[in-house]
Amino acid sequence: MDFTDEMQMEIGAIAAGDYVIRVFEDPRQLPQADWNALLATQAQPTPFMRLEYLSALHESGSATATTGWQAQFVGLWRQDRLLAACPAFLKSHSYGEYVFDWAWADAYQRHGLNYYPKLLVAVPFTPVPGSRLLAVDAEARTLLMHGLQALASRQGLSSAHLLFGDSADLRAAQQQRWMQRQGVQFHWQNRSPLPYTSFEEFLASMQREKRKKIQQEQRKVREAEIHFEVRQGAQIGAADWDFFYHCYQLTYRAHRSTPYLTREFFRLMSRDMTENWLLFTAKRGTEAIATSLVALDPMQGHAYGRYWGAVESVSCLHFDACYYQPLAWCIANGYRRFEGGAQGEHKMARGLLPVATHSSHWLAHPDFSQAVADFLAQEGQAMRGYVNELEEHQPFKPSS
Protein backbone atom coordinates (compact mmCIF):
# COMPACT_ATOMS: atom_id res chain seq x y z
CA MET A 1 0.00 0.00 0.00
CA ASP A 2 1.05 3.61 -0.52
CA PHE A 3 1.38 6.09 2.30
CA THR A 4 -1.22 8.83 2.37
CA ASP A 5 -0.64 12.19 0.68
CA GLU A 6 0.01 13.61 4.14
CA MET A 7 2.82 11.11 4.68
CA GLN A 8 4.33 11.87 1.29
CA MET A 9 4.24 15.58 2.10
CA GLU A 10 6.11 14.87 5.33
CA ILE A 11 8.80 13.04 3.38
CA GLY A 12 8.88 15.73 0.70
CA ALA A 13 9.70 18.29 3.38
CA ILE A 14 13.14 16.71 3.68
CA ALA A 15 14.05 16.67 0.00
CA ALA A 16 12.36 17.96 -3.09
CA GLY A 17 11.19 15.36 -5.57
CA ASP A 18 8.42 12.94 -6.39
CA TYR A 19 9.17 10.26 -3.79
CA VAL A 20 6.74 7.50 -2.89
CA ILE A 21 7.02 5.11 0.03
CA ARG A 22 5.17 1.82 -0.14
CA VAL A 23 4.68 -0.81 2.56
CA PHE A 24 4.40 -4.51 1.66
CA GLU A 25 2.90 -7.30 3.75
CA ASP A 26 4.64 -9.94 1.64
CA PRO A 27 8.32 -9.55 0.66
CA ARG A 28 7.66 -11.45 -2.56
CA GLN A 29 5.74 -8.41 -3.82
CA LEU A 30 8.98 -6.43 -4.04
CA PRO A 31 11.16 -6.54 -7.19
CA GLN A 32 13.80 -9.14 -6.36
CA ALA A 33 16.39 -7.99 -8.91
CA ASP A 34 16.15 -4.35 -7.81
CA TRP A 35 16.34 -5.27 -4.11
CA ASN A 36 19.38 -7.49 -4.59
CA ALA A 37 21.07 -4.89 -6.80
CA LEU A 38 20.69 -2.36 -3.97
CA LEU A 39 22.11 -4.87 -1.49
CA ALA A 40 25.18 -5.48 -3.64
CA THR A 41 26.18 -1.81 -3.40
CA GLN A 42 26.02 -1.58 0.40
CA ALA A 43 28.96 -1.43 2.80
CA GLN A 44 28.12 -4.72 4.55
CA PRO A 45 26.01 -6.97 2.34
CA THR A 46 25.18 -10.42 3.71
CA PRO A 47 23.30 -13.33 2.11
CA PHE A 48 20.64 -13.04 4.82
CA MET A 49 19.49 -9.74 3.33
CA ARG A 50 18.88 -11.22 -0.11
CA LEU A 51 15.22 -11.11 -0.96
CA GLU A 52 15.26 -14.87 -1.56
CA TYR A 53 16.20 -15.42 2.08
CA LEU A 54 13.62 -13.00 3.45
CA SER A 55 10.93 -14.34 1.13
CA ALA A 56 11.68 -17.92 2.20
CA LEU A 57 11.13 -16.95 5.84
CA HIS A 58 7.70 -15.67 4.87
CA GLU A 59 6.72 -18.36 2.37
CA SER A 60 7.75 -21.19 4.70
CA GLY A 61 5.64 -19.88 7.57
CA SER A 62 8.71 -19.25 9.72
CA ALA A 63 8.28 -15.45 10.00
CA THR A 64 4.67 -14.43 9.42
CA ALA A 65 1.90 -12.67 11.30
CA THR A 66 0.95 -16.06 12.78
CA THR A 67 4.37 -16.41 14.40
CA GLY A 68 4.48 -12.76 15.51
CA TRP A 69 6.37 -11.37 12.50
CA GLN A 70 3.90 -9.38 10.39
CA ALA A 71 5.79 -8.16 7.34
CA GLN A 72 5.85 -4.41 6.75
CA PHE A 73 8.65 -4.19 4.20
CA VAL A 74 9.29 -0.59 3.21
CA GLY A 75 10.44 0.68 -0.18
CA LEU A 76 11.23 4.18 -1.41
CA TRP A 77 10.61 4.88 -5.09
CA ARG A 78 11.18 7.82 -7.39
CA GLN A 79 9.11 7.16 -10.49
CA ASP A 80 9.89 3.50 -11.33
CA ARG A 81 13.27 3.34 -9.58
CA LEU A 82 13.71 1.67 -6.21
CA LEU A 83 15.99 4.00 -4.25
CA ALA A 84 15.86 2.42 -0.79
CA ALA A 85 14.28 -0.53 1.01
CA CYS A 86 14.43 -2.50 4.24
CA PRO A 87 12.83 -5.54 5.93
CA ALA A 88 10.45 -4.39 8.65
CA PHE A 89 7.96 -6.23 10.83
CA LEU A 90 5.21 -5.55 13.30
CA LYS A 91 6.28 -7.67 16.26
CA SER A 92 3.90 -9.02 18.90
CA HIS A 93 6.80 -10.33 21.05
CA SER A 94 10.59 -10.06 21.29
CA TYR A 95 11.62 -13.63 20.49
CA GLY A 96 14.16 -14.30 17.75
CA GLU A 97 15.81 -10.87 17.91
CA TYR A 98 18.95 -11.30 20.09
CA VAL A 99 18.81 -7.69 21.28
CA PHE A 100 16.84 -7.94 24.48
CA ASP A 101 14.12 -5.45 25.40
CA TRP A 102 11.95 -7.66 27.62
CA ALA A 103 12.52 -5.33 30.59
CA TRP A 104 11.24 -2.38 28.55
CA ALA A 105 8.11 -4.32 27.62
CA ASP A 106 7.58 -5.30 31.27
CA ALA A 107 7.88 -1.67 32.38
CA TYR A 108 5.25 -0.63 29.84
CA GLN A 109 2.92 -3.37 31.02
CA ARG A 110 3.35 -2.44 34.69
CA HIS A 111 2.27 1.11 33.82
CA GLY A 112 -0.80 -0.06 31.92
CA LEU A 113 0.67 0.64 28.47
CA ASN A 114 1.06 -1.62 25.45
CA TYR A 115 4.60 -2.20 24.26
CA TYR A 116 3.49 -4.57 21.50
CA PRO A 117 3.13 -4.33 18.61
CA LYS A 118 6.41 -2.59 17.86
CA LEU A 119 8.15 -1.90 14.55
CA LEU A 120 11.32 -3.90 13.96
CA VAL A 121 13.89 -3.54 11.18
CA ALA A 122 15.85 -6.80 11.28
CA VAL A 123 16.42 -10.18 9.70
CA PRO A 124 14.33 -12.67 11.70
CA PHE A 125 16.28 -15.14 13.86
CA THR A 126 19.56 -13.90 12.35
CA PRO A 127 21.89 -11.84 14.58
CA VAL A 128 24.38 -11.21 11.80
CA PRO A 129 25.68 -7.62 11.55
CA GLY A 130 25.27 -6.01 8.16
CA SER A 131 23.45 -3.46 6.06
CA ARG A 132 19.75 -3.14 6.89
CA LEU A 133 18.74 0.15 5.23
CA LEU A 134 19.50 -0.55 1.58
CA ALA A 135 19.85 2.75 -0.25
CA VAL A 136 21.46 4.31 -3.31
CA ASP A 137 22.90 7.16 -1.22
CA ALA A 138 22.74 8.91 2.16
CA GLU A 139 19.75 11.06 1.13
CA ALA A 140 17.66 8.03 0.18
CA ARG A 141 18.65 6.30 3.44
CA THR A 142 17.56 9.38 5.40
CA LEU A 143 14.21 9.41 3.60
CA LEU A 144 13.74 5.70 4.32
CA MET A 145 14.57 6.25 7.99
CA HIS A 146 12.13 9.15 8.15
CA GLY A 147 9.48 6.96 6.56
CA LEU A 148 10.01 4.22 9.15
CA GLN A 149 9.47 6.61 12.04
CA ALA A 150 6.45 8.11 10.30
CA LEU A 151 5.04 4.59 9.83
CA ALA A 152 5.49 3.82 13.53
CA SER A 153 3.90 7.12 14.54
CA ARG A 154 1.02 6.76 12.12
CA GLN A 155 0.13 3.34 13.51
CA GLY A 156 0.45 4.49 17.11
CA LEU A 157 3.23 2.02 17.89
CA SER A 158 5.18 2.15 21.12
CA SER A 159 8.58 1.98 19.46
CA ALA A 160 10.75 1.22 16.47
CA HIS A 161 14.04 -0.69 16.46
CA LEU A 162 16.86 -1.32 13.98
CA LEU A 163 19.04 -4.31 14.85
CA PHE A 164 22.61 -5.22 13.83
CA GLY A 165 22.91 -2.42 11.27
CA ASP A 166 26.08 -1.17 9.60
CA SER A 167 27.79 2.19 10.13
CA ALA A 168 25.63 3.94 7.51
CA ASP A 169 22.48 2.66 9.21
CA LEU A 170 23.81 3.88 12.54
CA ARG A 171 24.45 7.37 11.19
CA ALA A 172 20.97 7.56 9.65
CA ALA A 173 19.38 6.52 12.95
CA GLN A 174 21.45 9.02 14.91
CA GLN A 175 20.26 11.79 12.59
CA GLN A 176 16.71 10.83 13.57
CA ARG A 177 17.81 10.94 17.24
CA TRP A 178 17.24 7.26 17.79
CA MET A 179 19.01 5.87 20.85
CA GLN A 180 22.07 3.70 20.33
CA ARG A 181 22.84 0.38 21.98
CA GLN A 182 26.05 -1.64 21.80
CA GLY A 183 26.50 -5.37 22.06
CA VAL A 184 29.36 -7.77 21.41
CA GLN A 185 29.89 -10.86 19.30
CA PHE A 186 32.92 -13.03 18.58
CA HIS A 187 34.33 -13.30 15.06
CA TRP A 188 37.39 -14.96 13.57
CA GLN A 189 39.39 -13.10 10.95
CA ASN A 190 42.11 -14.59 8.81
CA ARG A 191 45.49 -13.07 9.31
CA SER A 192 46.46 -10.16 7.04
CA PRO A 193 48.42 -9.50 4.89
CA LEU A 194 49.74 -13.09 5.12
CA PRO A 195 46.76 -15.37 5.78
CA TYR A 196 47.07 -18.73 7.47
CA THR A 197 47.98 -21.55 5.12
CA SER A 198 46.67 -24.32 7.38
CA PHE A 199 44.72 -24.95 10.56
CA GLU A 200 47.98 -26.07 12.16
CA GLU A 201 49.55 -22.71 11.39
CA PHE A 202 46.53 -21.01 12.97
CA LEU A 203 46.97 -23.13 16.11
CA ALA A 204 50.68 -22.29 16.21
CA SER A 205 49.79 -18.59 16.45
CA MET A 206 47.89 -19.17 19.69
CA GLN A 207 49.16 -19.19 23.24
CA ARG A 208 50.35 -22.62 24.35
CA GLU A 209 47.53 -23.16 26.86
CA LYS A 210 44.82 -22.34 24.29
CA ARG A 211 46.49 -24.42 21.59
CA LYS A 212 46.78 -27.48 23.83
CA LYS A 213 43.14 -27.22 24.86
CA ILE A 214 41.97 -27.23 21.24
CA GLN A 215 44.25 -30.17 20.42
CA GLN A 216 42.93 -32.08 23.42
CA GLU A 217 39.32 -31.41 22.41
CA GLN A 218 39.92 -32.61 18.86
CA ARG A 219 41.74 -35.67 20.19
CA LYS A 220 38.66 -36.63 22.24
CA VAL A 221 36.54 -36.52 19.09
CA ARG A 222 39.01 -38.69 17.19
CA GLU A 223 39.20 -41.14 20.09
CA ALA A 224 35.43 -41.46 19.84
CA GLU A 225 36.08 -42.64 16.24
CA ILE A 226 34.31 -39.62 14.77
CA HIS A 227 35.18 -38.24 11.35
CA PHE A 228 33.58 -35.47 9.31
CA GLU A 229 32.10 -35.31 5.86
CA VAL A 230 31.75 -31.89 4.23
CA ARG A 231 29.23 -31.00 1.54
CA GLN A 232 28.73 -27.65 -0.13
CA GLY A 233 25.92 -26.29 -2.25
CA ALA A 234 24.35 -28.81 -4.61
CA GLN A 235 26.31 -31.62 -2.91
CA ILE A 236 23.90 -31.34 0.04
CA GLY A 237 21.10 -33.72 -0.84
CA ALA A 238 17.54 -34.00 0.50
CA ALA A 239 18.57 -36.77 2.91
CA ASP A 240 21.35 -34.56 4.28
CA TRP A 241 18.88 -31.73 4.84
CA ASP A 242 16.44 -34.14 6.51
CA PHE A 243 19.08 -35.37 8.97
CA PHE A 244 20.25 -31.82 9.63
CA TYR A 245 16.70 -30.71 10.39
CA HIS A 246 16.18 -33.65 12.75
CA CYS A 247 19.31 -32.58 14.66
CA TYR A 248 18.20 -28.94 14.57
CA GLN A 249 14.90 -29.91 16.19
CA LEU A 250 16.70 -31.92 18.86
CA THR A 251 18.76 -28.87 19.85
CA TYR A 252 15.61 -26.86 20.51
CA ARG A 253 13.94 -29.79 22.24
CA ALA A 254 16.91 -30.07 24.62
CA HIS A 255 16.21 -26.46 25.65
CA ARG A 256 12.47 -27.13 25.88
CA SER A 257 11.81 -24.80 23.01
CA THR A 258 10.30 -24.86 19.51
CA PRO A 259 12.38 -24.35 16.37
CA TYR A 260 11.94 -20.97 14.71
CA LEU A 261 12.53 -22.31 11.20
CA THR A 262 10.41 -24.88 9.39
CA ARG A 263 11.68 -27.73 7.23
CA GLU A 264 10.13 -25.91 4.26
CA PHE A 265 12.44 -22.95 4.86
CA PHE A 266 15.51 -25.13 4.33
CA ARG A 267 13.93 -26.72 1.24
CA LEU A 268 13.57 -23.23 -0.22
CA MET A 269 17.14 -22.43 0.74
CA SER A 270 18.41 -25.54 -1.01
CA ARG A 271 16.48 -24.45 -4.10
CA ASP A 272 16.96 -20.67 -4.18
CA MET A 273 20.32 -20.10 -2.43
CA THR A 274 22.06 -23.39 -3.12
CA GLU A 275 25.64 -22.14 -3.09
CA ASN A 276 25.28 -20.31 0.21
CA TRP A 277 25.35 -23.43 2.41
CA LEU A 278 28.03 -25.67 3.83
CA LEU A 279 27.19 -28.78 5.88
CA PHE A 280 29.50 -30.68 8.22
CA THR A 281 28.26 -34.15 9.15
CA ALA A 282 29.95 -36.02 11.99
CA LYS A 283 29.98 -39.78 11.50
CA ARG A 284 31.05 -42.87 13.37
CA GLY A 285 31.69 -45.33 10.59
CA THR A 286 28.70 -44.87 8.27
CA GLU A 287 26.36 -43.63 11.00
CA ALA A 288 25.65 -39.89 11.09
CA ILE A 289 25.48 -38.55 14.64
CA ALA A 290 25.69 -34.73 14.34
CA THR A 291 25.61 -31.85 11.88
CA SER A 292 26.75 -28.24 11.73
CA LEU A 293 25.33 -25.85 9.13
CA VAL A 294 27.36 -22.85 7.96
CA ALA A 295 26.17 -20.07 5.66
CA LEU A 296 28.58 -18.77 3.03
CA ASP A 297 29.07 -15.50 1.22
CA PRO A 298 31.46 -16.51 -1.59
CA MET A 299 31.72 -12.98 -2.96
CA GLN A 300 32.85 -11.49 0.37
CA GLY A 301 34.75 -14.54 1.58
CA HIS A 302 32.72 -14.65 4.79
CA ALA A 303 31.24 -17.66 6.59
CA TYR A 304 28.59 -17.68 9.31
CA GLY A 305 28.06 -20.42 11.86
CA ARG A 306 24.31 -20.99 12.05
CA TYR A 307 22.87 -24.22 13.48
CA TRP A 308 24.01 -27.46 15.04
CA GLY A 309 22.50 -30.60 16.50
CA ALA A 310 23.38 -34.18 17.49
CA VAL A 311 21.56 -37.44 18.07
CA GLU A 312 23.97 -38.46 20.84
CA SER A 313 26.32 -36.71 23.23
CA VAL A 314 30.05 -36.93 22.43
CA SER A 315 32.57 -34.97 24.47
CA CYS A 316 33.85 -31.84 22.65
CA LEU A 317 32.00 -32.70 19.43
CA HIS A 318 30.15 -29.37 19.49
CA PHE A 319 33.41 -27.40 19.53
CA ASP A 320 34.89 -29.43 16.69
CA ALA A 321 31.79 -29.34 14.49
CA CYS A 322 30.94 -25.68 15.09
CA TYR A 323 34.39 -24.05 15.30
CA TYR A 324 37.43 -26.14 14.41
CA GLN A 325 36.06 -27.83 11.28
CA PRO A 326 34.60 -24.57 9.86
CA LEU A 327 37.79 -22.64 10.65
CA ALA A 328 39.93 -25.28 8.95
CA TRP A 329 37.61 -25.11 5.93
CA CYS A 330 37.77 -21.30 5.83
CA ILE A 331 41.58 -21.37 5.88
CA ALA A 332 41.76 -24.04 3.18
CA ASN A 333 39.31 -22.17 0.95
CA GLY A 334 40.64 -18.65 1.40
CA TYR A 335 37.75 -17.26 3.44
CA ARG A 336 38.60 -14.12 5.41
CA ARG A 337 36.01 -14.14 8.21
CA PHE A 338 33.99 -16.60 10.28
CA GLU A 339 31.23 -15.26 12.51
CA GLY A 340 30.28 -17.50 15.37
CA GLY A 341 26.80 -16.09 16.11
CA ALA A 342 25.41 -14.30 19.13
CA GLN A 343 27.06 -14.21 22.56
CA GLY A 344 29.49 -16.74 24.04
CA GLU A 345 32.81 -15.45 25.35
CA HIS A 346 34.00 -19.09 25.43
CA LYS A 347 34.60 -18.54 21.70
CA MET A 348 37.63 -16.36 22.49
CA ALA A 349 39.62 -19.39 23.60
CA ARG A 350 38.98 -20.80 20.13
CA GLY A 351 40.35 -17.81 18.25
CA LEU A 352 37.21 -15.71 17.81
CA LEU A 353 37.72 -12.15 19.04
CA PRO A 354 35.22 -9.57 20.38
CA VAL A 355 33.53 -7.31 17.84
CA ALA A 356 31.09 -4.53 18.72
CA THR A 357 27.54 -4.74 17.35
CA HIS A 358 25.00 -1.94 17.26
CA SER A 359 21.26 -1.38 17.38
CA SER A 360 19.12 1.76 17.30
CA HIS A 361 15.87 2.43 19.14
CA TRP A 362 13.04 4.99 19.15
CA LEU A 363 10.33 5.07 21.84
CA ALA A 364 7.25 7.20 21.38
CA HIS A 365 6.52 7.83 25.07
CA PRO A 366 8.82 10.68 26.22
CA ASP A 367 9.15 9.53 29.84
CA PHE A 368 9.96 5.95 28.88
CA SER A 369 12.29 7.20 26.19
CA GLN A 370 14.27 9.20 28.74
CA ALA A 371 14.37 6.28 31.17
CA VAL A 372 15.66 3.94 28.43
CA ALA A 373 18.23 6.56 27.36
CA ASP A 374 19.55 6.71 30.92
CA PHE A 375 19.70 2.91 31.08
CA LEU A 376 21.50 2.67 27.73
CA ALA A 377 24.10 5.23 28.84
CA GLN A 378 24.94 3.09 31.88
CA GLU A 379 24.79 -0.15 29.91
CA GLY A 380 27.01 1.30 27.20
CA GLN A 381 29.67 2.29 29.71
CA ALA A 382 29.59 -1.18 31.23
CA MET A 383 29.76 -2.80 27.78
CA ARG A 384 32.80 -0.76 26.79
CA GLY A 385 34.51 -1.83 29.99
CA TYR A 386 33.59 -5.45 29.29
CA VAL A 387 35.03 -5.30 25.77
CA ASN A 388 38.22 -3.66 27.05
CA GLU A 389 38.57 -6.45 29.61
CA LEU A 390 38.09 -9.08 26.92
CA GLU A 391 40.77 -7.45 24.79
CA GLU A 392 43.24 -8.02 27.62
CA HIS A 393 42.74 -11.78 27.35
CA GLN A 394 43.77 -12.34 23.76
CA PRO A 395 44.28 -16.04 22.92
CA PHE A 396 47.11 -15.31 20.46
CA LYS A 397 50.81 -14.90 21.00
CA PRO A 398 51.86 -11.22 21.22
CA SER A 399 53.73 -11.44 17.91
CA SER A 400 50.85 -12.99 15.91
Please give a structural write-up.
The chain is α+β, with helices and mostly antiparallel strands and 400 residues long. The chain has helices spanning 5-12, 32-40, 51-59, 102-110, 138-154, 167-175, 199-204, 208-223, 238-254, 263-272, 317-332, 366-391, and strands spanning 19-24, 69-71, 73-78, 81-86, 88-91, 118-121, 134-135, 159-163, 179-189, 227-232, 277-284, 287-297, 302-310, 337-342, 353-363. The chain has an eleven-stranded mixed β-sheet with strand order 2-5-6-8-15-9-14-13-12-11-10. Strands 1-3-4-7 form a four-stranded antiparallel β-sheet, with helices on both faces. Helix 3 runs antiparallel to helix 10 and helix 8 (208-223) packs across helix 11. The radius of gyration is 22 Å and the shape is globular. The N and C termini lie far apart (55 Å).
Put the structure in a nutshell:
With 400 residues, the protein is an alpha+beta fold. Helices cover 38% and strands 24% of the residues.
User: Looking at CATH, which topology of the largest domain would you report?
Assistant: Aminopeptidase
Count of distinct strands: 15
The largest sheet is: 11 strands, mixed
The share of residues in extended strands comes to 15-25%
Structural class: alpha+beta
Q: Superfamily at the CATH H level of the largest domain?
A: Gcn5-related N-acetyltransferase (GNAT)
- Strand order across the biggest sheet? 2-5-6-8-15-9-14-13-12-11-10
Radius of gyration: 22 Å
CATH architecture of the largest domain: 3-Layer(aba) Sandwich
Enumerate the spans where pLDDT stays under 50 for 5 or more consecutive residues.
1-16
Q: What do the pLDDT scores average to?
A: 94
Sequence of secondary-structure elements = HEHHEEEEHEEHEHEHHEHHEEEHEEH
Q: How many independent structural domains?
A: 2
Quickly name the level 1 CATH class of the largest domain: Alpha Beta
Helix content: 25-40%
